[in-house]
Amino acid sequence: MITKLIEQIQEKKAPIVVGLDPTLKLMPKTLVDKWINELGQTPEAVAEAMFEYNRQIMDACVDLIPAVKPQIAMYETFGIPGLYAYQRTVEYAKQLGLIVIADIKRGDIGTSSAAYALGHLGSVKIGEYTYRGFDADMATVNPYMGSDSVRPFVDVCKPEDKGIFVLCKTSNPSSGEFQDRIVDGRPLYEHVAEKIEEWGANNREGDYSNVGAVVGATYPEMGERLRKLMPHTYILVPGYGAQGGKGADLKNFFNKDGLGAIVNSSRGIIAAFQKEEYAKYGEENFALASRAAVVDMLEDINSVL
Amino acid sequence: MITKLIEQIQEKKAPIVVGLDPTLKLMPKTLVDKWINELGQTPEAVAEAMFEYNRQIMDACVDLIPAVKPQIAMYETFGIPGLYAYQRTVEYAKQLGLIVIADIKRGDIGTSSAAYALGHLGSVKIGEYTYRGFDADMATVNPYMGSDSVRPFVDVCKPEDKGIFVLCKTSNPSSGEFQDRIVDGRPLYEHVAEKIEEWGANNREGDYSNVGAVVGATYPEMGERLRKLMPHTYILVPGYGAQGGKGADLKNFFNKDGLGAIVNSSRGIIAAFQKEEYAKYGEENFALASRAAVVDMLEDINSVL
Q: Which of A108, A112, A188 sits opposite B181 (nearest CB)?
């Protein structure tokens, strides 16, 4: 899968991914109201709005971006109807040829992690039939429980042609509370980084493995160090834009060939229409505002590569 | 919520919780086949079997147990139909008066954690209506991303009368890879334990807080130490039975008054009919086998308290 992601990144000259994290606050009121008028003040109405919001943004940006990253939490908030919108979003993105990075941050003991891995990346056999639950291309994984919790995700990568990104140093303000603690003279996230390289060792496709890492844009010095510590690991970089990361901070996450990292922006792209600089598009053209924000993000990031 | 859990534990003299983790391997073949005959080899059939399996086990054990702990991974494997079975299981358990501990191990940056917390424990407003997604009583949370990822779950506890259990030292074999690493002279899980006490400080109900901890039965020495380090923290103890933990190992997880811990068993109870000692019940009476296994588990655990 990492080969497919790299091909898309190179073809579109776009080492970026758009986070599809719809909320009632971020979606245009007109869009939400349209569905509430049709289906009432119900989670089904919100779910329809979420899917339409995502669909319009994807339609407007598909030629510019290699991938999307739906944050499943935003859908789980609305229960089953929300998860149905998540599923439709994954399906639609794949129909458009976009790679789907499911931001699910799952992790559990072996048998439960295997269940998550099969549900989100793999498949289950029911009698003679094979059934795919959510069927994303890649997924984020939480490493706190150790190798036997990550392995079931790693194991699904090769047979199913999928990939994962394991949390290493996350973008949020208090990520340091545990991740930065010093263990044997080095921060814990460096030990996690070593394990990520190890987990990926049998999952290489060319220079990179299907086991990637999450390292926040908000910590550029750590990005530089982690880039070196994980030479075969693709880095998913959240925290650009709304969380404070800037293009100039990102150079060190990349290798000299301009590969090795993919930068995510969520709110900065999907709610661009709410920002002064894109207000001219108007709420009804929110997807065009998103497209303009993607163009600007690409210019910012490609200028430092 | 912790008060309600303690009341149920005392009333039933049962510091235990039954893990509702149905899989195709664990469920009786006759039950699965019944639904496949009706609905075909489909996830919908498996989901119906899962719900009926859970329902029969809960019906058979409700007078003996205070709580159930559905592992959401087992349901997510089967996509939306699976999650619908999860939702029905939560609802049915609550109708029976059982406390539901949602084993979801979620955790993300602030806004996403808030979305999870509202979806699984809280509610969202849609216009004038309040909608509850999965509405469990308590949930497990992953601390790797630090305070701002755990806080949204903590914050929902008081207004919604809910509780959480934060992963501290998990029961799986490789939990030590990161959790046991020495930070400032002590294992990382002890630093997590301190934070758990801190997160619970404003969430006390009597002696205990609504912010609990997960500590695996498979590590009894650590259980003893963590019991002392977290005096106001209820401990959810997985790993009993199938994962290797025994009653004699559990004494140290409890306080002298017999409170302070609740021990989970999943496979050992729900698939008891597959074990030689309960084979006499026969596959069709799987729920009675589960009841017998609960009785034996209670005897084992109460003998050391």
A: A188
